[in-house]
């Protein structure tokens, strides 16, 4: 009886350990002291690159916008990861390469996008699987058309 109890406790412990949460960090590791040290009108692209390093990405429409993205996630077992903390540091430069603005946003800027459905809408007629498979059986071919025998 005692062996069964011990085996049950060990089995339950192993089963619960498989559902342990996973914490992960993705992106840039932002040092708050260094990020706060960037000053408008004083720093330029070279000094920002030396202080913070290369940006996570630059602006698609304006290469003078540098973005440093940091994200922490938590995940339980096989579920989708949930964002627990996010910081996006945006450094904007003027045409001369000097810092024009520094802004920081957080998790509140994450957008939730819901797809419209499981299927992509297409134009044309809607035929079932069997219509596609057996639709041409019994159709009369005309001479000169592709697939017809002359």
TrEMBL record:
<keyword id="KW-0472">Membrane</keyword>
<protein>
    <submittedName>
        <fullName>Outer membrane protein assembly factor BamE</fullName>
    </submittedName>
</protein>
<dbReference type="Pfam" id="PF04355">
    <property type="entry name" value="BamE"/>
</dbReference>
<dbReference type="GO" id="GO:0051205">
    <property type="term" value="P:protein insertion into membrane"/>
</dbReference>
<dbReference type="GO" id="GO:0043165">
    <property type="term" value="P:Gram-negative-bacterium-type cell outer membrane assembly"/>
</dbReference>
<dbReference type="GO" id="GO:1990063">
    <property type="term" value="C:Bam protein complex"/>
</dbReference>
<dbReference type="GO" id="GO:0030674">
    <property type="term" value="F:protein-macromolecule adaptor activity"/>
</dbReference>
<dbReference type="InterPro" id="IPR007450">
    <property type="entry name" value="BamE_dom"/>
</dbReference>
<feature type="domain" description="Outer membrane protein assembly factor BamE">
    <location>
        <begin position="27"/>
        <end position="101"/>
    </location>
</feature>
<keyword id="KW-0998">Cell outer membrane</keyword>
<dbReference type="InterPro" id="IPR037873">
    <property type="entry name" value="BamE-like"/>
</dbReference>
<dbReference type="InterPro" id="IPR026592">
    <property type="entry name" value="BamE"/>
</dbReference>
<keyword id="KW-0732">Signal</keyword>
<feature type="signal peptide">
    <location>
        <begin position="1"/>
        <end position="20"/>
    </location>
</feature>
